[in-house]
Structure formats: structure tokens, C-alpha cells
Amino acid sequence: MREDSMARLADVARKAGVSVATASRALVRPEMVAERTRQRVRDAAIELGFRYHPSAQALATGRSRLLALLVPDLTNPFYAPIIAGAQRAAEESGNDLLVVVTDESPERERQLIDRLRDRVDGFLAIAPRGAGSLFTSLDVPLVLVDRRVRGVPSVVVDTPGGLAELGAHLAELGHRRVAYLGGPRGSWADPRRLEGLQRGLAHEVVAFGPLPPTFEAGSDIVDELLASECTAAVAYNSALFLGLLYRLAQLGVQVPEALSVCCADNLAGLGLAVLEATALHVPAEDAGSSAVEMVLGAVEGRSPEPRHRSVPVQLVIGKTTAIPH
Questions:
Q1: What is the maximum alpha-carbon separation in the chain?
Q2: Are residues 150 and 288 part of one domain?
Q3: How far from 90 is each of 57, 203, 300, CA to CA, in Å?
């Protein structure tokens, strides 16, 4: 048992006139100790300059108060607000968050879970691709973020529902042939996004991809997009969308006069809010915080209700869509 000062737990117990076990409970599980005893232990700890180390707390409670968030990479801008929301919720509940990059490798995901399962209380996982069987076979508290796997609790952003609204908006403007810039290959969410757009538009959708979530991919697809004779384009990712806008400006293609463009998220950190683009407002931070709430419920033995939560999105109509000419 480690302490952060020269004083030991035994010293605190002796000064307070209690056993070491009672002193430990008073500092770590105060609800188990009478108020007068608890106060004597606290006063003794303050007087001696004693601070209880987290590792000792873990031994006493069986909890590390540490959660692990598995994330495919740190380059996709969609993940940053999820991480921020999860970290905020973890800290507000007295826990810490460990972010671990999996490189989208199922083998690495399994290795990391096996390595960390005895060090953390539970897992959150962003795993847009790969077999879901990895998560159904685990016996540790785990919540998936933005993906559903049968039998595994999850929090999913309702981007497909938002794209259905976006498709209806484009149809109302008069667009009859719309491009969807989608990807990457094997993504659980991508076919659902495409289906949502098709459902709302009720006209022809031309799918491009799979495309990585990068600025370069958005720029490189423009020539093929313009040759398709689509009057509007929807990018699944904001970095892709910015690359698209950049290349269109280079070519002198006027937005939205010559081509309406919109995006499945409006991550303000990438400038879409400044551009006043037509996009979906995606509260990704809410997805991260909700996932933490769910996994902590499982850690505490409470079955998450509901097991699958949906985070709504909002269509924001900006200046990048208009009636086709």
C-alpha cells in the first residue's frame, strides 16, 4: 500500500484511535463508517498530511476508477468530440479515461482488451469496421460507440435519420441526381447513411467511394464528380467536404450555383460552421458522455436501459445548397 507522504495509514489509524481497516474504509468507502469516526479519521489525515494513493483505493474497493476508450486512430476529426465528451463524463463521475489507438486491427483490439481488462473498470469502443463477434464474446463491461452489434450495449448517432432529412431538403429544391461521397470500405455506418439519403431524396443517388476521411480524398474525387452530371453532392465526412470545396474553388466551380454541396457533419473545429454550410449538426460529445454513463452503470451492476441509445442530429440549412440551374 502506497502513500504520497511520509505518514502512513497506520499512523492515521493510531491517531484517530481506530483500526487500519476502519481508517481505510473511512477514506475510501465513507458511507460504511459512522460520521463521528469518519470525521476523526479525516482530521487525523489532514493533521498528518496523509493522502491516500489511488492504488490503495483500488485494493479497498475493487475499482480502479479508470475506463479505457478504444479508438481506431486520432486523425479522423469525428472522433475528437466523442473523446472529449467521454473524458468530461468520466471526470465528472470521479473516473479517469485512458484513450488507446487500435489502428482498426481486430487483433490489436483483442490484445488491448486482454492486456487492460484487469486494470480498468470497463471499456468504450469506437470500432466502425471489423467483425462484431469480437465484442459479443467478451465478459467485461463494454459499450460500443456509433455501431450496433446484437447483444452489446451501444450509443449510435442518428446520422441516417439526419441524411433522410437532408435528402428531402435537396428533393424540395429540385435535385433529382445527387452524389454521395461515402466510405470507407467495410464501415458499419456507411450503408445506413446511404440508405437514409436515398429514402429522403426518393430520386437517383450516385454513390462514390469507398473514400477515406481525408482532405485529399475530397479534392481528388472532384473531376469524377463533375463528370457524373449530379447537381448536388453529400460528403460523409467534414475533412472530405473541405477538400471538395477547395478543389471546386480551384476549378472556378461556383457553389451552390453550379453545384450544391453538403456534409453529414458540421464539425466546427474544421471550419464548416464558419462557411455556413448545409450540414448535419452532430452532437458527438453527447455520444461519448452517454457511453460513459452506460458503461459505469454496467460496472456498478445496473443493466443499461435502454441497451441501445440513439443520439439525434439536426439539419442545418446553410448557403451551400440551392435550386439547381
A1: 85
A2: yes
A3: 17, 44, 14
**Residue 212 CB partners (closer than 8 Å, separation 6+):** 183, 184
Intervals of the chain under pLDDT 70: 1-7, 29, 51-63, 268-274, 303-306
* Same-domain pairing of 182 and 247: yes
Strand spans (E) along 188-302:
204-208, 232-235, 260-263, 278-281
Domain assignment of residue 20, given as a range: 9-61
Q: What is the pTM assigned to this prediction? A: 0.79
pLDDT at 274: 59
Q: Which three cell numbers stand for residue 11?
A: 499512523
At 131 the three-state DSSP class reads coil
**pLDDT score, position 158:** 97
CA angle (217 as vertex; 241, 162 as ends), nearest 5:
35
**CATH number, residue 228:** 3.40.50.2300
CA–CA separation, 171 vs 276, rounded Å? 20
N-terminal to C-terminal alpha carbon distance within the chain: 74
In this structure, how many other beta carbons lie within 10 angstroms of the beta carbon of residue 62? Answer: 8
Number of domains in the chain: 3
Domain-embedded: residue 35: yes
